[in-house]
Each structure stands twice: as C-alpha cells, then as structure tokens.
Amino acid sequence: MRSKSSTIRTHRAVTTGAALLAGALALTACSGGDGKSKDGGGDGGASASGSTVTLPKLNGASLEVAAVWTGTEQKNFKQVLAEFEKRTGAKVTFVPAQDPIINFLGSKIAGGQPPDVALLPQPGAIRQAVDKKWAKPLGPEAVKELQKNYSQGWQDIGKVDGKSYGVYYKAANKSLIWYNAKAFGNAGAKEPKTWQELLTAAQAVYDSGVTPFSVGGADGWTLTDWFENVYLSQAGPEKYDQLAQHKIKWTDPSVKQALTTLAQVWGKKDYVAGGADGALQTEFPASVTQTFTGGDQPKAAMVYEGDFAQVNIGDTKAKVGTDAKVFPFPAVGSAAPVVSGGDAAVVLKDSKAAQALATWLASPDAATIQAKLGGYLSPNKNVADSAYPNEVQRRIAKALIASGDDFRFDMSDQAPQAFGGTPGKGEWKDLQDFLKNPKDVAGAQAKLEKDAAAAYGNGG
Q1: Which of 63, 115, 178, 248 has most Cβ atoms within 10 angstroms of its Cβ?
Q2: How do residues 114-153 score in pLDDT, each as one tens digit?
C-alpha cells in the first residue's frame, strides 16, 4: 500500500492523546453533522452551496500537482481536484511522481518544469525543499484556513523556521495493531492495554496453535514504525524528540531498552510468522493479508501498522470491524504512544492559483470529499466524523483529532533520507539486521549510531 513516503511533533506529554485514543477505539463512534464544517462562509465560486472556504475565480489558469499516490488513492484525490476546478474554473493536472519525490522534483526543477504544488511526505522533505529555495511560503488565505482547521501541532510540523510552508492534507494513525477476531476468540485472548498484556495475549494465541505476529520485514519502514511506538511510550516524548534530531546517540541506554523490549516479540521462537527469514521476505501488503486469510489457521493472529492497513484487509474476505479488529498500540511505559505520519501540500510556483489550491486543501470541504471515499484520514479537525464511511475509520479519525497536539510525527520521516528513508540502507537495514539477530542489541546500536552520524553530519 505505502512506500515509506506515500503514507505519517510537539513538546508535550502523550498521556492525554493516548488515553483519548484508547477511549475512542473502545467506544462506539458517534457521528453527526453533514460532513461540513459549520464555521466559515464565503461564496466559494461557481459551486459554493454549503461552502466553508472562499476561493478566487481562476478561469484560464492551469496547475500541475505532483504526488506519489497511485491506484485508488490517486483516483480519489483527483475527485478533490475536480471540485476545485468546478469552484474556480482552473484546470488541474495530476503528475504521478516517483519515490523519493525530492529526487523527482529535483529533476523537474533542473529541467525548468516544476509542478505548481507537490505533496511531500516528510517534514525533512519540506525543510529540504525550503533549503533548496524550491518551496514558497503559504499565503495569508492558506494560513488563515490552517489556523481555523488544524491543531497547533499539525500547523507546526508544516513550518520551517517559524514560517508556514506545508498544508498537511493527509494523515496516518500509526499506533494500531490489527487482529484476527476468530484467532483471538479461539485463543480466549483479550485486547491488551499494556505491553505485558500484549505478551500475555500473544502467548494465549501461540498456545492455541496460531503464530502471534505477522511482520512485513522486507519493507524496512514497518520495523522503524515498531521501534518508534515502543520508544515513544517507554522513553517518553522529550527523549523521542532528542533522538529524532540526533541530539542523543543511538548508543543511549534508552535505545538499548527499546530494542531489548522489541526482542521480546521479534526474538521469541515461533512468535513471528515464517521466523526472521520469512518476515524479511514478507512485504507489507502480504503481512496484512496473511493475517486475515486461512480460516481458523491464519499465518498469524496480529499485524502492526497504521490505519492504511484497511486497504490491504480489503483484498481479503475479512470484514473490517467484525473479522478484522483493531486496538491501540499498547502502553510500554506510562502512556500508550500516538505516532502519526502524513503528506503536506507545498507550493513550488507562487501564483494566485497555486495558493488557492493550498487554501482549498486546508479546508474541510476538500478533506470531506476524500474522507467519504474511504482509505483516507485527515488531520483537519473540522471534518465531521460522519464523513468517514465505516465505524472503524470514524473511530481512528476521531482518535487522531482527539490527540490534539499530543502526538509525535514518525521519527524516521523526520530524519535525513539517507538514514530514515532509503531501502537497504541506514535505519531500515540496521533494523532488518536486528530482526535477524535480536540478541545483538549493542551491535544494532553501534550500526544505527554510525549510520545516523554520517547522515545527520554530527556526532550526536
């Protein structure tokens, strides 16, 4: 479903957000409203009925928007662009980008043909685009829309040196574990709230004859996501921020503790489907589908990953909410983690039309269109719960919004690409090696620190 870049921090404790996440997933989602924000007004152009955002007339203007999205995700986003065309009279062309998008944009810019707007998947990529003088600051209308519709935390991760550059149009809730309800039922396992309870549930599943966990280890980003959830909960948000910026070394005792904790799952015999070798040959989509196929004998009972796993569950006969259920990543320390990812719209060619598109993507009107189509999560707090097409998605969206500023953005997405976002290198490769040999905590730490120091250009 998602390359590291195609799918998702502040300085406060995560306790509130984690509690709200747990509560929101445990409760039946309440829905209400018509999917539109009630604040705002304006004539919004040609199709302004019920509009919450004012857009200019742009007849004759042409725009290009680049993103790495493919398949259904691209098709659904094009519907959002079509509504922008209808309201403004502008013509918008979607440009499919290759991964990593920063390299793709570099070649476009070198050829004198940058897209007007690009969807960038990491805060690090936004900073790179600013440092290279590609990105243009958001105009006053887009900033006003951001302030109206986004928590401070989501506004801040789109800023560079205090100036707004990114509109986080799409988010990912990456603190979820999906499970096979039949396998849990047969084992008498219960949804865990703590790491110890997770190990207890895993043992019950194992005793019933089913392997507890499926891990998509062929994609290194799934392993960084595992690490981030354990580390955020166990070490806490301040240490998380320090490690994300390489202000502390990967040889720090807090990293040792997190890797040792991970080894309780990754290193336990027959706890991971296919063992380490099998997991390292399993790509993310297969790690999900093998958890929800095979009747009473799936290859595993649980798979960790974000809300976007629903797309892959959809490739099986399992129904989300009945056969495939979900619980928040359990608390390893004092609070459960809330880790997010996301994609931000950044203006590369400063024009009235490009700024209007950024304003549009910051509005609840735009996000509501894609929310209704499924497989999408918005950090826009004025998108009604009822816009989401099923109960599980409504709960996940509600939980993300309820966490307010009490979340942390995916750590590897904040790192230089050479360390946090390159297949076969850096953190991805080092954690794959650790999955193969979870006893060698010190060796993993040394490799992680060596690669981080090279990529960040500092010694920690």
Answers
A1: 178
A2: 999 999 988 989 999 999 999 999 999 999 999 999 999 9
Question: Can you tell me the distance from the alpha carbon of 53 to that of 40, in angstroms, rounded to the nearest whole number?
Answer: 7
Q: How far apart (Å, rounded) are the C-alpha atoms in residues 254 and 261?
A: 11
Task: Give the angle 96-168-353 at the CA atoms, nearest 5°.
Answer: 65
More confident site: 314 or 185: 185
CA distance 70 to 384: 26
Region 327-344: mean pLDDT is 94
Q: What is the pLDDT of residues 3-58, one digit of tens each?
A: 443 333 222 233 334 444 544 454 333 333 333 333 333 333 333 346 999 999 99
Give the other-Cβ count within 10 Å of 147's Cβ: 12
Please state whether the peptide bond connecting residue 237 to the residue before it is cis, i.e. omega within 30 degrees of 0. no
Q: Which of 310, 36, 355, 364 is nearest to 169 (CA)?
A: 364
Quick one: CA dihedral 413, 135, 154, 254, positive or negative?
positive
The Cα 28–Cα 25 span in angstroms is 8
Average pLDDT of 189-197? 98
Sign of the dihedral through C-alpha 412, 395, 120, 284: positive
Cβ–Cβ under 8 Å, residues 292 and 313: yes
Sign of CA dihedral 243, 129, 158, 122: negative
pTM for the model stands at 0.81
The residue ranking higher by pLDDT, 360 or 98, is 360
Question: 249 near 449, Cβ under 8 Å?
Answer: yes
From residue 252, how far is each of 73, 178, 304, 417 by CA, in Å?
39, 31, 26, 22
How confident is the model at residue 364, as a pLDDT? 98
Token code pair at residue 435: 């999955």
The backbone torsions φ and ψ at residue 267, rounded to the nearest 5 degrees and listed phi first, read: -100, 0
Q: 398-424 burial by CB neighbour count: b if 16+ within 10 A, else e?
A: bbbbbbbbbbbbbbbbbbbbebbbbee
Q: Which of 394, 387, 347 is nearest to 366 (CA)?
A: 387
CB 167 within 8 A of CB 179: no
Which residues, 6+ apart, have CB-to-CB distance to 330 below 8 Å? Answer: 177, 192, 193, 194, 195, 197, 198, 336
Cα(129)–Cα(361) distance, rounded to whole angstroms? 19
